[in-house]
Design a protein that fits this description.
heterodimer, A: F1FO ATP Synthase, 0% strand, B: mainly alpha, 6 helices
């Protein structure tokens, strides 16, 4: 590795590009877990409503509560993305 | 001095949202009180909303204290609901392309507003806990897990973090939901203006009806954002009722 290659790598790893990269990675990996979680919440709600339709109002209420709490975790990572991308503004 | 009291668009949106809450409910209460048998549609709508808040939020978590704390929880719920919904209105934009000045904004799309609400809920819950259980009882409840001593002592910093995470999560959840929804709508509208219009112009004549789909998708997303606005107001009020009920448990 000579000086020219080291210079290129130093240019590629500047804070601006690293910030954008980190922002994309943050929300990308967080959305994976969020997708699984929301799928579990709604799947269980649908299953229990199919087993016992009289419980639908209760299940529906708990489903919305569960959805919002799972979604909040994904949005914490979105907050990090906003901090990384809109820093200095 | 003008830096301290600069009235931004978020500030007057918070004022408008608060004034709207007061107006709607004072008017609704007057209409319900003045009618003998049947009130108008507006009064019935107000009563339905208040009943929803009472049944699902106050009585689900607060039980016997629901009557005393219902005003606080319902005001929180309706203020956040109106604030979230007001942000979905389109507003005028002035200024140049680089220096856009929006005149209508979501008040809860600002981290300061949601932090203020979360800190208020936190202070109310902790003060109620201290008044209800005394200092020793409050510390025991908040910092000690129901576990053997060799687990409890190292877990005290973790319980402190849990205590701090509650208002933080409240504030960030509401802020991020509103801001993310807003950015998604803006992104889709820009995509409609650039790509959707290109598609409408470039499509052959038999495909022109299909090219309206990007615009339909934006409208569907806006409907989803209205739903999310309602859900987030509900969750905020519900979690603050939950934290309050934890402080109100041991009744001496």
């Amino acid at each position: 590795m000579n000086m020219a290659e080291a210079e290129t790598i130093k240019q590629l790893l500047d804070p601006n590009s690293l910030a954008w990269l980190g922002g994309g990675l943050a929300i990308g990996t967080a959305a994976m877990g969020g997708g699984v979680g929301i799928g579990i919440v709604f799947g269980k709600a649908i299953e229990s409503a199919a087993r016992q339709p009289e419980a639908l109002p209760l299940v529906q209420r708990l489903m919305f509560i569960g959805f919002a709490l799972v979604e909040a975790q994904v949005l914490y990572a979105l907050l990090i993305t906003f901090i990384l991308i809109f820093r200095g503004v | 001095m003008s830096e301290l009291f600069h009235v931004d668009q978020w500030v007057w949106m918070v004022w408008i949202s608060g004034a709207l809450t007061v107006l709607v409910f004072v008017l609704g209460a007057r209409l319900i009180a003045a009618s003998r048998v049947v009130a108008g549609r507006f009064a019935v709508f107000v009563e339905v909303m208040v009943d929803f808040a009472k049944e699902n939020i106050a009585e689900a978590f607060l039980g016997e204290h629901a009557k005393k704390w219902f005003g606080f929880i319902a005001t929180l719920f309706f203020f956040i609901l109106f604030a979230n919904l007001l942000g979905k209105l389109p507003g005028p934009v002035t200024g140049s392309l680089k220096q856009q000045h929006f005149w209508l904004e979501t008040p809860t799309g600002n981290i300061n507003v949601t932090s203020a609400l979360a800190v208020m809920v936190f202070l109310v819950a902790q003060t109620t806990g201290l008044m209800n259980m005394g200092l020793v009882g409050y510390l025991k409840k908040k910092f000690l897990l129901p576990a053997p001593k060799w687990v409890q002592i190292p877990a005290i910093p973790i319980m402190f973090l849990v205590l701090l995470a509650e208002p933080f999560s409240l504030a960030v959840r509401l802020f991020a939901n509103m801001t993310a929804g807003h950015r998604v709508i803006v992104t889709f509208m820009v995509a409609d203006m650039v790509g959707g219009m290109w598609l409408v112009q470039q499509a052959p004549i038999w495909a022109k009806p299909i090219s309206v789909l990007p615009f339909v998708l934006t409208v569907v997303l806006l409907a989803f954002e209205l739903f999310i606005a309602f859900i987030q107001a509900f969750i905020f009020a519900l979690l603050s009722a939950l934290y309050l009920s934890e402080s109100l448990e041991e009744h001496h």
